[in-house]
Amino acid sequence: MTKALDFSKFLSEEAKRREPSPLKSAFKYFSDPNIVFLGGGLPLPDYFPFEKVVAYSPAPPFSNGIDAKPTDDSNTTVVDVLKNNAAAGDVSLAKSLQYGFTEGHTELLAFLKGHTELVHSIPYDDWGLITTVGNTQSWDATLRTFCNPGDHIIVEEYTFSSALETARSQALKFVGAPMDDDGIIPAKLDEILTNWDPAKGKKPVLLYTIPTGQNPTGSSIPTERRKELYKVAQKHDFLIVEDEPYYFLQMDPYVAADGADKEKPVAQTHEEFLKALVTSFISIDTDGRVIRLDSFSKVLAPGVRLGWIVAQDNLLERYVRLHEVSIQTASGFSQSLVQGLLNRWGQKGYLDWLIGLRHEYTEKRDFAINSIVKNVPSSISHYVPPVAGMFFTVFFDVTKHPKYVEFGKDPLKVENAIYERALECGSLMIPGSWFKTPAEDAPPFGDHIFFRGTYAAVPLDQLELGIQRFGDAVKLEYGL
Amino acid sequence: MTKALDFSKFLSEEAKRREPSPLKSAFKYFSDPNIVFLGGGLPLPDYFPFEKVVAYSPAPPFSNGIDAKPTDDSNTTVVDVLKNNAAAGDVSLAKSLQYGFTEGHTELLAFLKGHTELVHSIPYDDWGLITTVGNTQSWDATLRTFCNPGDHIIVEEYTFSSALETARSQALKFVGAPMDDDGIIPAKLDEILTNWDPAKGKKPVLLYTIPTGQNPTGSSIPTERRKELYKVAQKHDFLIVEDEPYYFLQMDPYVAADGADKEKPVAQTHEEFLKALVTSFISIDTDGRVIRLDSFSKVLAPGVRLGWIVAQDNLLERYVRLHEVSIQTASGFSQSLVQGLLNRWGQKGYLDWLIGLRHEYTEKRDFAINSIVKNVPSSISHYVPPVAGMFFTVFFDVTKHPKYVEFGKDPLKVENAIYERALECGSLMIPGSWFKTPAEDAPPFGDHIFFRGTYAAVPLDQLELGIQRFGDAVKLEYGL
Fold first, then answer.
1. Whole-structure pTM value
2. What is the domain extent for residue B343?
3. Are B157 and B177 in contact (CB under 8 A)?
4. Does the structure's ipTM exceed the value 0.95?
5. How many domains does chain A have?
């Protein structure tokens, strides 16, 4: 058995203080047939006013697309979960609506473990997974578990502003990892850490990255670069937190509108699909220093508030202690209904769903990029077609803006002028500077600013209209 | 309009640091018909694989008891929530399974607000409520919002060990409020705070209390005493956090088995029921210094992971900022299904349910107490019939234990001997010392120890058997 390294040295003061409940020693008698257990404040399931829940869902293989409505027996998966005597593999309501199972329900954990084994290949043995109420909470729990106020953490130079806010309010400080079109540049991060000034405090304890379909840049870190980054983590001894909500929004390569659609290499079979996925950090994690945050939010629905953390068992145990005294566990309805669906779809049906999702996002991404090509002048802008995620970015050369000198050569003034003009024209994309990490040594804004758009949230006709209006605004601003 | 006082001085360093997301300024354009909004990473509801969920629940007025199974149209409430075009008052799945609504969904908040107005009478106007994922999380969020590491908080001398653990791991310290059969003794708490030694740090910032059906003691604070405690809070200027999961497990008065059952004063009508409820702290809160933690866990089911906080709006806003970067919001399935049920039951149907619950718990409590009278010798023990909650306690005089002197007059050794003996006899009740608050100046254990049992978690025949075996163990221990 290959064991993960001991990283208990990374635990925060708060995490070190956590102790299991003294009542745990009594709860081992809970199911003992010889003991009448009068120890726990559990309400009787007889008083749960839900005898059965039923969900109506589309059925694999989703031949008409994942957005085709289920109409009859042939294309409907009926998820009927009973209070008692639930189907094998289901989480009965008597269980899911009761206290307990902080780690998540056994049946759901088993499905997720099977799924993880299909997709990743974790190099050590003592890994596991626990459920959470979504990656925002997983990230909050991660910071509570590994960071003390005043600590530095590494984040991408531009990143998800909510993730920054979680950390900032906990009094953490940021090191911004320089990026290019392929995400974090390993050599530059190595350089920063090699030249770390101890006067700033201890070296960063973790790297937070959205490696696939990054928010906001839309970039994805290629496999080779992930391996280089992992070596940087080993050299400077920090944890890697890979926040991967967009992992299954990986797409087929972009082929321009004038290319022959039929010749696109499309991942169709389960084998092709799995092979086309980028290598995750946890798949190259020989040490057990990667904490993977996974979620159903972009794959099924955000409101299920159901995510999971994959990591070494010893570190997961500290999360469980935290969850016992905070969220307790994810919603029983969410667990029963999601597991009910996955239980009926099976691993293969779930892959069918993910393949369908890939198809949808590929189509939307292609549509968005084609629309940018058509509407946003290339003389002053550039873009990189994303290979994953919900976001595209368009970069602008500020020096070519007519008011560049009048604006005192301030790139943020150009950015704001474009943002305001786009609003006037009836389109909203988010200025890139809004996602800038407030690192102590952040370099000044360069000559290129960017805007983040999404092709995920609107139908194609609206997407076309939005980008067209944005292009009009840019032309007005640049006098083109 | 009567406004709550400004208690922003009570905010923790962490809570003061929280800022709204910069993206908020863009999101005001989200529903603007003139703007194509390409700003947010929201997946299309077309890709949520849930077209409809249906729950089968009992229907008011629950004439055959709340545990009677729904069998046909006459006694079944069918909660059918659609993805789109949901019934009026329902939370559609397109909304509940999407991002957003950190405070909770409008329809559910409206029901809860109506319910709160029926039950409580809050003396100021700018109060509100937000949903949480249950009181354990509400309590964690409360500590993050009002306490800095090293701060003291006041808790009952014996209290819920998980609530202590939440605070302990955040490096908080405890002041144990002395209790008698009616809960916290206001004069004693006043005395402790009046004699507060500033060398210990600043005076406590909040009181955490489970005023009704307290865990573990089963005590409930009478209305007059709540008013006295509120004055102590005003005098020493601290917040009161009332954790009230058992509020609707208030029961009719205990009448001994030999009393005439028929003469019990039973709360049957909605009016009688509401009138019989104890006055909450928030109903006497002229200042806006009470934070009320409410929950469906004991009323519907723990696994819905759905609670709510009632407090002044200005303080709730700080919780919302925390939730945005941690839990986000409660599960959409939980919100759609619980609101779907409440929407169909209506306020009156919900009161019917609560009256039914009161009836069940009254029956169980009476049964448990009658069984104690029968099985546990009164020569060495006493009990106080609880008027609310899930728990009963039996106190023992340790000085009468045959090995008292042999045990070095250590009450904990007597306690442990009874616990172990009860296990041998096949019954488990929890030793009271396990709930003792680890306060710095905690008095030593006195001559009376207690055990906590519950009448909530087992059917009546098991309850009888468990108490009978516990009584056997006690008789063996005491040589009776």
1. 0.97
2. 8-34+102-357
3. yes
4. yes
5. 2
